[in-house]
Amino acid sequence: MRHMQAQPAPFLFKADDSTTGVLLIHGFTGTTLELKPLGRHLHAAGWTVHAPLLKGHGVTPEEMGCTTWVDWFVSARDGYRLLREEGCELVVVVGLSMGGLLALKIAQHEPVAGIVTLCAPLKVRDPRLSLARYLQYMFPYAKRRGRKADHIEPHLYVYERTPVSCVVSLEELMHNVRYVLPRLKQPALIIQAVQDETVHPASGQMLYEQIGSADKELVLFEQSGHIITLDREQDRLHETVTQFIRRIESNTRSHPNT
């Protein structure tokens, strides 16, 4: 594992004059570092922003290997509850990659005001995913393959190997979310990077078609890869997410009992 100067940690940016909160959820083997630029932008827009560090992440592969998607969900849900405890009456959940799946799970259980998914995986490019449950006992760890682009890699805290048991758990989460999608009714912004090297770009369209929300939008980012929060279109991403949250706020004020 390559350590950075900045150790991954949860962050909470408090806003003085707003009761709107934004929960940012990082992805599988990722950390809150990938969400800092988006978090700072949303805080500057006037909202309280919190990003929890999911259990088993930002530590060691061995520690991650002792966790499952349920642990990651609990970490994310606790982040939602922290925002409510901070006085946020309206909370929008934003998730990158697997964090998008966790955002959808939170929306199943909590009264979130809106959902934003960033490159959430309903379909992945790596064919080994379907074999993981059969290989996990013979090969407990999978070596990292390749690096991210030069403008992204230095900002990551990476595991050089991934517990295969956690890959199996990720697949279970994907199946679980597919099952609950039709029951979700909150406004949803689905963002998908066309150049995504990890998640199949068709995931965005699949999610858009399967989610039960009447108010939903699919936005494609033609020049971005999987870590869309750090890629070349991040300014456009910041503005797209900001506009969605502002619309949620406006609609809530106009229809407070809906």
From TrEMBL:
It comes from the Bacteria. One of its GO terms (molecular function) is carboxylic ester hydrolase activity. The active site is at 97 (nucleophile), 196 (charge relay system), 226 (charge relay system). Substrate binds at residues 28, 98. Pfam families: Hydrolase_4. Residues 22-232 form the Serine aminopeptidase S33 domain. PANTHER family: PHOSPHOLIPASE-RELATED (PTHR11614). This is Carboxylesterase.
